[in-house]
Amino acid sequence: MSKVMINENEVDIVIGALNPDLTSFMEEWRPVFSRFHLIIVKDPDLKEELKIPEGFNVHVYTKADIDKIAGSTSTSLLFSGYSCRYFGYLVSKRKFIVSIDDDCVPAKDDMGNLIDAVSQHVQNLETPATPFFFNTLYDPYRKGADFVRGYPFSLRSGVTCALSCGLWLNLADYDAPTQALKPTERNSRYVDAVLTVPVKAMMPVSGINIGFNRELVGPALLPALKLEQEGKVRWETVEDLWCGMCVKVVSDHMGIGVKTGLPYVWRNERGDAVASLKKEWEGVKLMEDIVPFFQSLRFSEAAVTAEECVIELAAAVKESLGPSNPVFERAAEAMVQWVKLWKVVKT
Amino acid sequence: MSKVMINENEVDIVIGALNPDLTSFMEEWRPVFSRFHLIIVKDPDLKEELKIPEGFNVHVYTKADIDKIAGSTSTSLLFSGYSCRYFGYLVSKRKFIVSIDDDCVPAKDDMGNLIDAVSQHVQNLETPATPFFFNTLYDPYRKGADFVRGYPFSLRSGVTCALSCGLWLNLADYDAPTQALKPTERNSRYVDAVLTVPVKAMMPVSGINIGFNRELVGPALLPALKLEQEGKVRWETVEDLWCGMCVKVVSDHMGIGVKTGLPYVWRNERGDAVASLKKEWEGVKLMEDIVPFFQSLRFSEAAVTAEECVIELAAAVKESLGPSNPVFERAAEAMVQWVKLWKVVKT
């Protein structure tokens, strides 16, 4: 990839704080984060005071801010647990957002160099995506790569990239059953590639390590699907999977792209997979209904912006999935509320 | 990936010989090829005697064999140049075929180990493909990998893999314009991944380094699209791109998968990109019509086998593309002839 000059003023790093002491997290990320503006959103369920080391350009949002902006209790409930980060997406005024879980630290590449995950996400977002034809040599815009023989010239300019999904070394983002079956398995394979996920192909987007173009698809990165027994470890949640399905179908409809691959982050242990097993089954079962729904979804031509797409999507969720499970009905309502909130904050 | 036990009796290695002296090619591949049965098909345009070193289990086919089996001159013309390898596909009686261009030698991985491209292709073909949902951690069946959180359990058994597309270190498979613009560019990036190309996503399949399940999709790997000025270097041909589009749409319809990524081969220089530029434009221009045609193609439910799909496909090519360019009309005819030939040889 040709090295992209990054304008720091276009980037917000959003961190959802589920743990009060961010000292070691922030210190590990200091070489990367110190150039950028940070938005830290404290999980409203967290009682203790946040500990944040000095020397960062940071804005902290707490339950008081959420209540003030989101208003009613039912709306502000959207922002608990892992979903607190979405409040950061809402209040950001910048073009790009990069969000990384607070149990992840910078990874190293195969040469032992610290990976600047923020710059890689921004590079992914600044260079075009190619969702309409697959390039077997991965990202054609990367230095040393190109389009392979047979790639239509008319598609080589690509389209705007909406979302960049990064990966995880050490503890991969498995569900509780998989993690419980393979308690000692750690991901050590560094795959040096970024690729565009083809149009119409669906994928499980993890919220652990992502970047996106907020101006283009911000309204589609939304907190909506909350499990009855949602917990404070990733494998007890599906909010990011739902959000990922939303942003992928919206991007497909808008003719823009989603990339996956680099950057990696180093993900540390958190939670007990075996203990989570009971809770997890609800989310696992929901995916069996969610995936076919999103795969068959079609938007009207009238839906042009991400907001408009989300409103159509919410109606479809309510109609098609709502009757089977109240969790979907609540998700549809949350999506409508989210777009309302987005419009209020943005105007 | 869990190491697959390979049954050598199920594999044919097919080499199209465009150059008479295969000595160094075969010697470089000896550690890999010597376990397997080889089918070498001599380009019927090649006048010189083939030079093949001793110590291989090899069956050589020449113009005399092609004429005997393919009969009429018009049919046997299908098998000239790079397309001579298809004759090997036709006469093989084995489950898997691996085919590698005669200007490629074994590559080394990042640790400096010789890559056994044949075993990797067979592993790709023996383990399931996952075309219906994208796994962000690449091949979930590989050792140390799995399905990521959110991947529907109902899709985790995957489907049969039909085609395995390998890649190229040193000289990547660019078209003549790209190669001419970047004369010194060499591919040195070893991406340690195999992934399934999602259903409905189209790709440029290169014939340089592939493996496939002959029993399942053999009839769809066919010689059909021949340029007026087709030459003896890859970037003067499109036969493999056409064949790749055919096998991808057929696999999609049959509910089986196509993988890309590992194994790499080391591709040596051949040909002069600048000299090829004039010829190449015809192929480049054709792709602009070919891609939308294949992207919108739908088979009838009556087409169940690869043979039946190819016959339907040939009719669609004749009808939709034929009027725009006689090269497509000839391709449609060649596809029908190929299936006839396939049936004769197989019964």
Automatic annotation (TrEMBL), chains A, B:
<keyword id="KW-0961">Cell wall biogenesis/degradation</keyword>
<dbReference type="InterPro" id="IPR004901">
    <property type="entry name" value="RGP"/>
</dbReference>
<dbReference type="GO" id="GO:0005829">
    <property type="term" value="C:cytosol"/>
</dbReference>
<dbReference type="GO" id="GO:0052691">
    <property type="term" value="F:UDP-arabinopyranose mutase activity"/>
</dbReference>
<dbReference type="GO" id="GO:0071555">
    <property type="term" value="P:cell wall organization"/>
</dbReference>
<dbReference type="InterPro" id="IPR037595">
    <property type="entry name" value="RGP_fam"/>
</dbReference>
<keyword id="KW-0325">Glycoprotein</keyword>
<feature type="site" description="Required for activity">
    <location>
        <position position="156"/>
    </location>
</feature>
<protein>
    <recommendedName>
        <fullName>UDP-arabinopyranose mutase</fullName>
        <ecNumber>5.4.99.30</ecNumber>
    </recommendedName>
</protein>
<feature type="site" description="Required for activity">
    <location>
        <position position="149"/>
    </location>
</feature>
<dbReference type="Pfam" id="PF03214">
    <property type="entry name" value="RGP"/>
</dbReference>
<keyword id="KW-0333">Golgi apparatus</keyword>
<dbReference type="GO" id="GO:0033356">
    <property type="term" value="P:UDP-L-arabinose metabolic process"/>
</dbReference>
<feature type="glycosylation site" description="N-linked (Glc...) arginine">
    <location>
        <position position="149"/>
    </location>
</feature>
<comment type="function">
    <text>Probable UDP-L-arabinose mutase involved in the biosynthesis of cell wall non-cellulosic polysaccharides.</text>
</comment>
<dbReference type="GO" id="GO:0005794">
    <property type="term" value="C:Golgi apparatus"/>
</dbReference>
<comment type="similarity">
    <text>Belongs to the RGP family.</text>
</comment>
<dbReference type="GO" id="GO:0071669">
    <property type="term" value="P:plant-type cell wall organization or biogenesis"/>
</dbReference>
<dbReference type="GO" id="GO:0009506">
    <property type="term" value="C:plasmodesma"/>
</dbReference>
